[in-house]
Amino acid sequence: HVQLVESGGxxxxxxxxxxxxxxxxxxxxxxxxxxxxxQIPDKEREGIAGIESDGSTSYAxxxxxxxxxxxxxxxxxxxxxxxxxxxxxxxxxxxxxSKLWSLESSDFPYWGRGTQVTVS
Length: 120
Prior knowledge:
The chain contains no helices and 11 strands. By secondary structure, it is mostly beta strands. The N and C termini lie far apart (37 Å). The mean pLDDT is 94.
């Protein structure tokens, strides 16, 4: 059973940066698709960045140019570097893993518990 643990969230000023981390309990990073999602109350979970086992990346249009997803296979970790943060980036951020190359939350069976990002 895959367990994912996110960290790195917090409060940041407008225009600031954060790096979120996600560590997997098993050898997942570099083998399957890893995705970062975010969700605000009463809204659907939004896929914002994904990275495939070969390092290919994909981003939602709403975050292109401000977010960078990367992975470290040796550390079994995936990262999300966020810059130029805006109040609308305030959300709970989740990482997830899937055998499918996708940014659709329904395609991801394994999820972390999330880390809160607040921009003000």
